[in-house]
């Protein structure tokens, strides 16, 4: 099992996204994942990443107007051209950073209609074709409604059905155990059944989204072993909000028998 730091959640106090690369390296991480680095040029982010000497595993798609709460426009009518431009820009960043995975966020809507699912699937088909050109992987993630109300995709069955229909090795599932527990629980069987479609895994304790060894609903020593048993041997993103100081809070990794 190998772990990467999510720079959108970790090392955030008093640090820009550029500074967090070095902080992650200093804490012992060999790899990171990030949201889209708004406000920073491709060259600035690439330099920060290279100076830190870490691998970039994943980057989120450029999400739209954050001031309006937009979390992607993939399922939003009338924004197909914006989606395509956001994807192309994100691919440029991914290639420059050496990231092989892009989280394609669906967006938020007050009401989700049949039209939205059609637009979402068509945009993902387009993405699959574009990602194939550079051998990149697009991942889609169901997000629970407690954490992000009105997020379009919050159903694992729906996500898998879409992945099956698109039928491309360049569109897979991002399996965040934090969201899986919130949405449907039954972790052992759901992880087993979902694993054939999984392209990336993230973890955090439930319900407070802190370190895996904090008080909560999920038995992470068991879950991490089960992920390995199911054949997952890729990066696991630590998408949690540290309850302790970042370095102190990482003691769980060694306590669980792993290392960075």
Task: List the topology elements.
Elements: E1 2-6, H1 17-26, E2 31-34, H2 42-52, E3 55-60, H3 80-97, E4 101-103, H4 114-133, E5 137-140, H5 156-166, E6 171-176, H6 177-183, H7 187-194, E7 198-203, H8 220-229, E8 235-238, H9 246-249, H10 251-255
Parallel strand pairs: 1-2, 1-8, 2-3, 3-4, 4-5, 5-6, 6-7, 7-8
Describe this structure in words.
The protein has one domain (2-255): Alpha-Beta Barrel (TIM Barrel), CATH 3.20.20. Helix 5 links the parallel strand 5 and strand 6 (171-176). It is an alpha/beta fold and 260 residues long. The chain contains 10 helices and 8 strands. Strands 1-2-3-4-5-6-7-8 form an 8-stranded parallel barrel, surrounded by 5 helices.
Distance between the first and last residues' Cα: 9 Å
Coarse shape: globular
Mean pLDDT reading: 96
- The CATH architecture can be given as Alpha-Beta Barrel
- SSE pattern, N- to C-terminal: EHEHEHEHEHEHHEHEHH
Radius of gyration: 17 Å
List how many beta strands DSSP finds: 8
Q: Class, according to the CATH hierarchy?
A: Alpha Beta
Count of alpha and pi helical runs? 10
Strand content: 5-15%
| Low-confidence runs of at least 5 consecutive residues | none
How many domains in all?
1
CATH superfamily membership, which one?
Answer: Divalent-metal-dependent TIM barrel enzymes
Largest beta sheet: what is the strand line-up? 1-2-3-4-5-6-7-8
CATH fold title: TIM Barrel
User: How many strands, which pairing sense, and closed or not: the largest β-sheet?
Assistant: 8 strands, parallel, barrel
Helical fraction equals: 40-55%
> In terms of structural class, how would the helical and strand content be classed?
alpha/beta
